[in-house]
């Protein structure tokens, strides 16, 4: 994502910009046409309503840039424009005047605009520079080889040992979307392996379904996030996006709406894949907590030694949730 200086609002200071827009700049606007060295490269529009956005659509796929100002800042028309230009070859540059607008524009529809236009030497410029850096980090290749943006490889793990009677602070992760009957999250006690925890989409004899809930285990545990990093359950907060995984390994991002932490009894499962990749997971000792198997979800209270569940192996060592190349031993 580029950062442009708006010369219509003042001269450039000491900061470095990818483009300068306005009189004497690398880009100029005449009669709402954007020029670069005398060549028309884009269309400018002052957006006052949805009709103005629709007026830009004929230029999508034709011009290199759509440059938009807003009479009153609004995310909806910007998102509509970003969606329309996605994959077309036409880029969107948006002028922002409020620092709070920078992250919204930078990550609109998880894609964002292609350039932020700011008045030089303002707080908005500073916020925009931070958003540019955050966008670059977010668009970097995934740090987990097994976790792409939309798929993980689930493999079988054999339960080698089960022990109960462990009291811990259990974290329920309540999401803002409903889970499908074969969806859940990936949780565990180490980055060696994370296990496919079923969402509470199935009612039990005494408890109704909670199709938005992941009963993820005690506070020390890991959960896989939508960006391929892990977080401790104790670190989670509303708005964080976790990786929701289906039985075929498909991944989608869903935001957390609420966390519910209560002291509950837990079971400790020790598992391995082919006798290696040994790992453990603590889960609440309740019939509503289930792990996914090749035949579907099974309650942890019904698991026996020798049973097979599914998970993701060899996620590598972590530091603050990020994969690192140095050796990390977790037991």
TrEMBL record:
Residues covered by the 3-dehydroquinate synthase N-terminal domain: 30-122
Pfam families referenced in this protein's UniProt entry, alphabetically: DHQS, DHQS_2nd
The answer on whether this UniProt entry bears the keyword Transmembrane reads no
Against InterPro entries, the record matches this protein to: DHQS, DHQS/DOIS_N, DHQS_C
Give the Gene Ontology MF terms in alphabetical order: 3-dehydroquinate synthase activity; oxidoreductase activity
Query: How far does the signal peptide extend, from start to end residue?
Result: none
Report domain 3-dehydroquinate synthase C-terminal positions. 158-331
Q: Which terms under GO biological process does the entry name? A: amino acid biosynthetic process; aromatic amino acid family biosynthetic process
Could you list this entry's UniProt keywords, alphabetically sorted: Amino-acid biosynthesis, Aromatic amino acid biosynthesis
UniProt protein name: 3-dehydroquinate synthase
Organism the protein comes from = Phaeomonas parva
